[in-house]
Amino acid sequence: MSLDVPDDLPVFALQGGNEEGVVGVVLHGHCGHGLGYLQAFQFAAAKYGRFIALQGDRPCDGALRSWSADPVRVDARIRRSLTIYLGHPPPERILAVGSSLGAVVAIALSKKFPQRYDRLVLNSLFRQQSGSGLAGARVWFFAGEHENTWPARLTAESWERAGVTTRFRSIESAGHSDFHGQGDRLMREAFAFVTNDAEF
User: What does pTM read for this prediction?
Assistant: First the structure.
């Protein structure tokens, strides 16, 4: 469903999520669409909690959006949108799912607010990122088999050495920012890992 947010773009919200689970935000890629990305793993998301898909703050063609590089502004938008979705202010910890440029935004959020965004699921990271300031986080990396997996692989390895708990998985037959029809199965595994679920 779509929720109106005063002085901002509408936010896409998951219906029927687990009210006892995590609260999360989905950050789409460059010139992407938040609803479409969330729908790729909506059943896994509902099992693990309640999620919104934020729209990027920069326009592309039509309904597609991209992102600025200001984590303070993005965080304020996330918390305002989650307050409307939940009916009360969000919890102190928010799980961030980012794809491509959205993964870069999620990392920036975690570095700026390490206590709030300490659980990340990152898909199709396209350039290697420093893990400075992220010790103690739990991060799952995806990359499609048919894209350049090395930025995600090398980032996961260097972050593990820096004290970040990481896991990397290549998605069979997938390209950039794609689950190749396997979104729910793969994201159940990722959510279990970053939430430290005993079922993992």
Answer: 0.96
